Amino acid sequence: MKRIVSGMRPTGKLHLGNYEGALKNWVKLQDQYQCFFFVADWHALTSDYADTSKIKENTLAMVTDWLAAGLDPNKCVIFAQSLVPQHAELHLIFSTLTPLGWLERVPTYKEMRENITDKDIGNYAFFGYPVLQAADICMYKADYVPVGKDQAAHIELTREIARRFNQFYGDVFPEPQALHTEVLQLTGLDGRKMSKSYNNTIELADAPDVIQAKVRKMITDRTRIKRTDPGHPEDCDVCKMHRLFAPAAVADQFDADCRGAGVGCVDRKRALADSLIEYLAPITERLNYYRDHQDEVRDILLEGSKKAQAEAERIMAEVRSAMKIDW
User: Fold this and answer.
1) What is the pLDDT of residues 64-121, one digit of tens each?
2) Which end of the chain offers a freer environment for a tag, N or C, measured as fewer CB atoms within 10 Å?
3) How far is CA 223 from each of CA 160, 220, 226, 232, 241, rounded to the nearest angstrom?
4) How far is Cα 261 from Cα 227, in angstroms, rounded to an integer?
5) Burial class (CB in 10 A: 0-12, 13-18, 19+), 182
6) Is 279 exposed, middle or buried (0-12, 13-18, 19+ CB in 10 A)?
7) Predicted local confidence at residue 304, as pLDDT
8) Do the beta carbons of residue 46 and residue 126 sit within 8 Å?
9) What distance in Å separates the CA atoms of residue 115 and residue 111, rounded to the nearest whole number?
10) What residues contact residue 111 under an 8 Å CB cut-off, 6+ apart?
């Protein structure tokens, strides 16, 4: 089977946008590829170095959500980056081969420097995180990396680093390909992109009454002032999200009724909340189980990390031999 590697920074409990944007796809990929999915806790240090108290807690919370969403440790390897020290070793080696100009042209670096204003990220690790990312991917000789189009530059940088290593030391690493997948970006409760930093999310762990309360706060058609006014579902965040999580025929009928003022915004919000609760019900059931069995979650993470470390050490033996620094 072809091999896939992907990871997430440990931000704690995941939200619906995380699930639709990446995690849902991971669940499908584990049946088609040999998958390594990791918690990028070292990447978290690049911006959260001043306060690391939540990283371990957030790691377990995120893995709990992964398992609830359907990742199966019998089908994929789930591990923590920091429990596989070979990542740091390969990162160091790659950093010696990476020209500064390659990092300076990564488009997301400037964007993140401009957008992250509450933390000091003017450090070497943040500037060089694409090199660590390249080490994460090459560590397992990944054939593919599932990414959205906004991450394509990082995969190209990884390919360049792998190519440069091979030019110096022989063909050790394949050049990974970006596996572009359909990524559904959800609008948050306030009309912006759903993001934990905006505090506008619906979490996978939210109870039905919490989902109902959050949806009631969502923005609807701004031009519809009164209940008797005709609506414009194409301009309504609630209507557009409802269409994503309800059968097409149901959404079509609601849209028609909205345009004819047959239903109000409150009715559509109630329908959206019901659809989300039903959609998340299987995840909620598994989530309740894993919340009550945190020792099992920890054991899965530790066992997966052992598997990853064994594979990483095998690859690093090849790297050291190719570089003639094996003893």
Assistant:
1) 999 999 999 999 999 999 999 999 999 999 999 999 999 888 776 665 655 555 666 6
2) C
3) 50, 9, 9, 8, 18
4) 7
5) exposed
6) middle
7) 98
8) yes
9) 6
10) none
